[in-house]
Amino acid sequence: MFHRLPRAAAGMALVLVLAGCSSSATPSPAAPTTTAMSGSVVMIPKQINNPYFDVAFKGAQSAATALGGTLTQVGPSAADATQQIPFIQTATTQGAKAIIVSADDANAIAPALKAAMSAGIKVVGYDSSPAVGAYNVFVNQADTAGIGKGLADMACDEAPSCTGEIAVLSAAQTATNQNAWIAAMQTTLAGSKYAGLKFDGVYYGNDDPTISTQQTQAMLAAHPNLKVIIAPTTVGIVAAAQVVTSQNLIGKVFVTGLGTPMGMQAFVKSGVSPEFALWNVTDLGYLAYAVAVDLVTGQIQGNPGDTFTVPSLNGGQPYTIGADSVVVLGPPFVFNSSNIDQYVASFGF
Amino acid sequence: MTEDPRPAGGPDALQPSPKVSVAAGGHSGSAMSRLLGSLAGAARLELFLVVILAFLIWWGIQLSRFFLTGPNFGFSIQAVMEISIMALAMTPIIITGEIDLSVESMVGLSSCVLGWLWASGVPLEAAIPIVLMVGVAGGLFNGVIVTRWGLPSLVVTLATYALFRGLGHVVLGSTVVSNFPAGFTNFGFGYVPGMFVPWTLLVFLLLALVTVAIVHWTWIGRQVFAAGKNKDAARYSGVRVGALKTALFAVSGLVAAFAGIILTSRTSTASPDNGLNMTLAVVTIVVLGGVDINGGKGTVPGVILAVFILATLKSALTQAGVSTDYQNVAIGLLLIVSVITPQLARLARGLLDRIRLGRSRSAPHSAPGDVIR
Asked: What is the mean pLDDT of chain A?
C-alpha cells in the first residue's frame, strides 16, 4: 500500500495546483475584427495582486474584445524583477504575438525582452519602462516631467505656506517609473518657489502594504516635524494615509502623490489627503493593447514620428510616438474634494 | 541534538551500513518489511525523488507542448542555479547539525560590494576576487562565533542574516548599479554556444561533482557525518569538530558570494535587495533532497535531484500560467510529502513487524547474546 504513497501525494499536489491554475490565468475570447489581429498577447504587470494593474488589465480586455486577439495576464506575486523573467521567457517559448510589460527593473528584464524581440515578438512597455532597446514602444501614462512637477506642486499646496519638511514613500528601489518621477520632482524642487520645502529622503515600500506601512511609521518616527508625505504609488499612498489617520496626525501631516479615486476618496474627505493625482488607468491598459495590435498587424513600426489613432481614446485625435519610442497617454488628473465623487463614479476605480 | 542509538540505513561513516530489522532469530523479516525498510533508507529516498522527477516531467508535458523544449529547459534551470550552488554548500553544514540562514544576505552584500567596486572604477578582474574574500570573511565570522562561543548556529546566522544585508545597504546606499559590461552579464544570462545549456549549469555540475566527492568519498565527508551524528563522540575520536564547522561556514560564505556574483551578472543589477527570500529556497532544496534537518544523514545526489525537481516543478507551473503564490503552495506540499513519506514508511514497517512478531510468538526468538543483524 505504501509504495502508492508517492503517486497519491503527487496526485494531491496536482489537484491542488490545478485549482490554483484555474483562478490565475483569465483569457478573453477573440472577436472578429477588420484589423485581422489574432494570436495571444501576454500582459505582465509588476505584480499581479495590485488593484492598479487589475484596472489596467480590464482596459486591455475591452481593447481585446474590440480589436481581436487573446489576452492573458500573468506575473509574479511580489514586485521582483527576477520573478518576472520566467514569465517573459515562457511567453516567448509559447509563441505569443506580443508582450505588454511593466518593468520591476529596467535592466534585469532587458535580456529576456530582447530575446523575445529577436523571436519576432512585439514588446510594449506600459506604466514602468524597460531599458531603452528592450521594447518596441513604451506607453507612458503621462509626461514624466509633468508628473514630477505635479508632485512638487501638490506638496507645496499641502504644506502650510509651502514651508516644511517633506519625504517620499516610493515603491521598489529599482522601479523605473517612480525613480524617474522622483528625479523630475527633485529638479522642480530646486526652483525658488519651493525654497521653503526641506526634502528628508526616500523610503521604499516595495508596493507591499505591510512594508509601506512600516516605512511610513519609520519615516514619521525619524522626522517628527514632517509635514507632507509624497507617495507616487497607489499602494503606498493608501498605506501612508492610513498610518496618518491611525496615529491621529490629521491636519499635522498631509499625504499626496498618485492614488486611485476610490481608494483615496475617504482620505480626501477626512482631510488627510486634500489633493492627489492620477490618470485614467483603464485607458492606459486599452492604449497599451491597441499599440500592441498595431505593431503586430504592421500598422506602425514603433519609430519616433509614427502616428496612429485609437477610436475610443484621445477624442479620436492621433497619437504620435516620440523620442525613445515613447507615446504619452495624456495629462494627469488632479483630484480634490470638489471633483473626487464625480471621478469615482466616472472612472469606476 | 539527541543521539539516535539505532544506526539507520544510509551512507554512514563510522559503521558498516546495516539494514535494521527487528530480526527474530534466523528470519530477516517479510518482503513487505524489507521493502519498507528500504523505503526508509536514503538510497531508496533517491529512487523516490527520481519517481517524483519523472512524474513532474510527464505532468509538464501534459500541461504544455513547449515544456520539453531546449529553451524552456535552459531558462528554467538557469533560474535556480544561484540557490542550487548555495544548497550544495549548505548540505554539509546541515549534515553536521548546523544551519546557515545568512546566505541570502551574503548574496545581497556581495552584489553590493561588486556594484560599489565597479562603480568606483575597479576592473572586474580585481573586484571579483575581493567580493569572494568578503564572502569568506563573512562565513568565518559565522563559523568562529558558532564554534568558539558555542552559540546555536540558528541564532548566529539569523543575526548575520540581518547584519550582512544591512551592510549591503551601507555599502551601496539607495543607488543601484546597472552598467555592467556584456562579457560579464553574458556569463549569468548566456548559454554555451549552440546549445541550451546555460554557463551557470556547467558551474553547478562542476561544484556538484566536487561536493559529492568530498562529502561521500573522502575523510572530510566522514568527519562531517561523524560530527553530525554525535559531535562529542566525534571529538573524542579525534575529529576537530570546531575547525571543521568553521571551514564549512567559510565555504558557505564563499559560495554565497559567488552566487551573488552570478545573480548580479544574470540581472545586470547590483542592489541591496538582491537575493531576498533565497534562504528558504536553499533550505527547501536541501531538505527535499533527503538531508535530515537534525543532522547526521543525507546525500548530495539527493540534493542534486531536488534541484532538478524544483526547477521542473516551477517550470511546469509557469508554463501553466500559475502565479508564484500558488507555486509556493505546490513547493510546500512537495516538501511535506518528501519528508513525511520515509517517516510513514518507517512507522508502517514497525507496525507490520509488531503484527508479524505477534503472529509468530511460537517461533524461535533471539536470546541474549544474539547479534541483531
From this structure: 88
Nearest CA in chain A to B48: A6
Q: At residue B31, does pLDDT exceed 90?
A: no
Q: What is the mean pLDDT of residues A228-236?
A: 96
Residue B223 domain flag: yes
Q: B272 to chain A: which residues are within 8 Å by CB?
A: 173
Domain enclosing residue B354, as ranges: 31-359
In 3D space, the residue among A167, A130, A159, A42 whose CA is nearest the CA of residue A326 turns out to be A130
Q: In this complex, do A82 and B79 lie within 8 Å of one another by their Cβ atoms? A: yes
pTM of the predicted protein model: 0.77
Does A12 have pLDDT greater than 70?
no
Q: How far apart are CA B355 and CA B373, in angstroms?
A: 20
Three-state DSSP at A200 gives strand
Q: Is A86 close to B185, i.e. CB distance below 8 A? A: no
Q: Which amino acid is at B331?
A: I
pLDDT of residue B38: 47
Is the pLDDT at B28 greater than 90? The verdict is no
Q: A338 to chain B, minimum CA–CA distance in Å? A: 38
Q: What is the full DSSP assignment across A31-95?
A: ---SS---SEEEEE-S-TT-HHHHHHHHHHHHHHHHH-SEEEE---SSS-HHHHHHHHHHHHHTT
Total tally of structural domains belonging to chain B: 1
**Which chain A positions have a beta carbon within 8 Å of B314's beta carbon?**
86
Domains and CATH numbers, chain A: 26-141+281-330 (3.40.50.2300), 144-278 (3.40.50.2300)
**Containing H/E element for A99?**
strand A98-101
Residues B139-168 have pLDDT tens digits of 999 999 999 998 999 999 999 999 999 999
Q: B326: distance to nearest CA of chain A, Å?
A: 6
The secondary element (H helix, E strand) that includes residue A165 is: strand A164-170
Q: How large is the average pLDDT for residues B3-11?
A: 49
Q: CATH number for the domain including B112?
A: 1.10.3470
Beta-carbon contacts of residue B248 (< 8 Å; ≥ 6 apart):
B89, B92, B93, B96, B98, B143, B224
Nearest CA to B292 among B53, B45, B101, B84? Answer: B45
Tally of CA atoms within 13 A in the half-sphere of A314 that contains its CB:
21
Q: Which residues of B touch A202 (CB under 8 A)?
A: 174
Contact flag B69-A17 (C-beta cutoff 8 Å): no
The pLDDT, as a whole number, for residue A330 is: 86
Give me A7's grid cell: 503517486
The predicted-structure confidence for A301-347, as pLDDT tens digits, reads as follows 999 999 999 988 888 889 999 999 999 998 888 999 999 998 888 88
So what's the ipTM on this one? 0.72
Partners of A226 in the β-ladder = A165
Q: A86–B323: do the CB atoms touch at under 8 Å?
A: no
DSSP secondary structure, A224-273, as one string = TTEEEEEE-SHHHHHHHHHHHHHTT-BTTBEEEEB--HHHHHHHHHHTS-
